[in-house]
Amino acid sequence: MNINQPIPLCGTPDVIWINQQGVLIVGDYKSRTSCKVQESDIIQLSVYRVLLEHTQCKPVARIGYVHLKNGRRVRVKLLDEKTVISLYDQYQSIIHGRRAARCTGKSGYCRHCSYSERC
Ligand code: SF4
Fold first, then answer.
1. Measured in angstroms, how far is the CA atom of residue 10 from the centroid of ligand 1?
2. Which domain holds residue 40?
3. Closest Cα to atom 1, ligand 1: which residue?
4. What is the pTM of this model?
């Protein structure tokens, strides 16, 4: 799926359920060993939610599910569209040099980052 408005986004959820009321619910399966939900998981699912809202003619739930490697399924509250747009704008500001990036302070994020040598 991809959209250009309100912001350019693309992606495909691992799974989409539809409940008895016809509401779509997004889910994602994580293969990493860490059994904790990360902030980035919630952002990812929230992006899928925005994509579904702009491409499907059905309501989309404000919650989603993260399936962890240990078999646990965690229900998470998703970000609203305004917040997703704000994150996109922050990202654009950083990559175009209008805003300085800040250290995440989270070793989990940095472990596989290709910039870790320079950061
Ligand atoms: S190592 Fe990567 S993820 Fe971590 S703070 Fe630096 S740029 Fe960000």
1. 23
2. 2-110
3. 116
4. 0.88
